[in-house]
Amino acid sequence: xKIKQVLSAAVAGxxxxxxxxxxxxxxxxxxxxxxxxxxxxxxxxxxxxxxVFNDELHERLPGVSVDFEVIPLSEYKxxxxxxxxxxxxxxIVNNYSLDFATEIANGSFAEMNDLLDKYGKELKEALPEWIxxxxxxxxxxxxxxxxxxxxxTRCICFIKEYADQYLDTDALRAAIDSAPTFSQNVYDIxxxxxxxxxxxxxxxxxxxxxxxxxxxxxxxQYSVVMGDDKCQVVNRYANDAAKIKYENAAQWYKxxxxxxxxxxxxxxxxxxxxxxxxxxxxxxxxxxxxEELFKKxxxxxxxxxxxxxxxxxxxxxxxxxxxxxxSKYPEQAMQIIxxxxxxxxxxxxxxxxxxxxxxxKIGEDRIxxxxxxxxxxxxxxxGLYKWIVGNTERAYSNQSEPDTYKEWAFxxxxxxxxxxxxxxxxxxxxxxxxxxxxxxxIKTQYSNVLWNGVKGDDWEAYYNEFVEKLNIAGDDxxxxxxxxxxxxxxxxK
Length: 493
Hints:
alpha+beta; D-Maltodextrin-Binding Protein, domain 2; three-stranded antiparallel sheet; 15 strands; 42% helix
């Protein structure tokens, strides 16, 4: 009798175990994780590619699948916020465009330190140690930062035919390097160039007054100057360097170097690259800029970079990949992130699709995609944004990139010593958010007018009015509060 009872209990136990986990079988408990990211949206071949991806994932991580949701980039922030507010199931989430500090305070993302130690060994080895600061708050990591070319600078562009005759590029280079922001010497050289063009009968419609140089953005219009060890907070639209810019813009406007209707003209940027368009203008710089701009505009271009060593700023412009705090499967989520961003085959399958269908392999590390642009659109058969997926050092180079691009980006730029001291600093603006809103509105009202010099001789009175309104709105308070936070942050550096 006792033997029968024992056997019955054993059978019942096996039946219960079978129901819960597959007693007497080799079946694994299957789970599916939801991964949400911005991108081109759902494309023609998305489902087929993701099915193949999951097949490959099962070989590396049995029983685990990923359900991808790719939201158009322009809609991403609003939709992901609604999804999180509605507590929709999300396991892995790209945090690009989200207010990272606010989401950390709201408890939206899981801490990843222990998870990375257990399941992210390959990923930690693949990324430089300093880059983790971008997604770290109070020593806790809340995301895997997107690894791409981390430094960026701009360049002043000229029609090469004219620059060869009328521009002293060596003097311009020296003037640019003489100060962290644009000095009067830079504007003097550019103003003389415009004067010489006009004097020699070379007409142009307008010119650029250039983007600010040398600033590391803290929040909104507030920055520190790159290379400043004290990291003094300034308003980059209302300081000595800005005042130099506004004064020269006003002079150029009076002389006709800036067209009268600059504030109302539509698509004025279409004049860039034309011999009778802009006298000079600025673009994003790379060693390939002149070649790429020649292809774009059909005229040879001389490009003088803002910085010889592009600065690596304190803000992670491309965001990163986080694990939702509400995920029931944080360990598997970490394993998936680790695999995607360290396994080259899996990464490129997710980014580019299937070899022979969505792309052709034309070299060991080089492919040709069905689309000509650097990244796919919603109308293409397939292609995600490689910088959203993550570690772009793992990406194949496609036909839009020069052969030496990755060598330059990862071994030169990312090894730069011109790196911000405030990487990972997240300002807490909650106590002065209203003041920032007010100063932003004032900046919007005044800066474009000053930027383009349209006030002419009255520019300084208009600038003083701008500064006065900023001060009433609390500009000094904002700078002081941000400075206190940065000083505290730097204590541990």
